[in-house]
Amino acid sequence: MANSPRINLTQTQRLALNPSLQGAIGILRTDAAGLTRYLEEQAAANPHLRLDRVLAPPGDWLPRWRGVFEPLGGRGGAEPDLAPATSPSLIAHVLQAIATLNLPARARRIAEALAEALEPSGWLARPPAAIAAGLQMSEAEVSAVLDRLQTIEPAGLFARDLADCLRLQAREAGVLDPIMSAILANLPLLASGDFARLARACGATEAEVLARFRLIRGMDPKPGASFDAGFGNGALPPPPREPDLLARPLGTAGWEIALNRSALPTVKVQRSEAADRAALAIARGLKQAVEARNATLLRVGREIAARQQVALSQGPAALEPMTMAEVGAALDLHESTISRVVAGAAIDTPRGTIWLRQMFSGARSGAIEGQSLSAAALRHRLAALIAAEDPARPLSDARLVKALAVETGITLPRRTLAHYRELAGIPAGPRRKRRPG
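^ that's the sequence the OP posted. Answer follows.
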């Protein structure tokens, strides 16, 4: 049979994203810092785009500063405790860093004593003189080792007080000039917001003091808080200094969630006499995409806060099981939209800055019917058990499984417990063993 050419008609459906929709999706998953850089690039090339930076007023500190200035006579409010004891992941981090310093035996003993004196904030709970007395060594020896430990990342660890913590961060950032040093020596004036008097005390202009204030506002007064082992995955990078959302407690009324206006410039569209219609359309589309991103981020942040009110107050031990699908269903959004929104977004709280994605955690069921805990809460309970162990006789993974089952009623497979421990950066029992000081 001879072959003959034939023409066939077929109908297919295909979903295609136009450039505008692709750009909106990209903006939705971009954090404030990345989006700011993108907007600056677009504004440089588009005459119809104008960016206005919103500078936070001097008295508007981020929530993580709440209560920090209280001992200095500032206007801070009551702040929940970070944790009952130093986070094991913080201890694991500093002990690992100490090992890389190759200290002699005597100096290493001092370093371990200093590490054990760390508060959850990353500051020293005891002055070097008291630690020296407990070790029966000279204060000069302890201070020399402390200087070495204060080079450990992140900057601000092993600080003696708030001024010391900020000085270490300013030194690392290369902004510890005479005016900054004078401001850190007069923190009560900074806390009170009396910038005119502070300027006179520093021998500087008020504008120079305000410029340093903005640098200080971006610093972290509690660098150790980022090592809290309970929230999320220990493999995540540290949250940004300028988060996307702010969470402030309202007492019995819950939490106020707001956009951090100083983290992202305001996008404005301006028409010029020689209007370029294509560029004007791009500018308007970009403005709408940014507004939609901010509105969606705020909706998601408020829904998360409403479901995790106790965890925001008490920490990761109170984190409720919550999935992106559940939040999406409550907001009538697709799960993939929630995933994009929280991909690079962080929220600033009195306990520190937290990635939004760290507030999500699956459930682990126990032997008792209806009983469940989030996986993140279990990781925090595990970290608390390790923090309370005898350093000379650390608990093995098998004993930790039993202890966690007694406390929560949930028996984890040993491999799962080891995985949780590794996520928190906590070494196995034999490697945690430390001789008594």
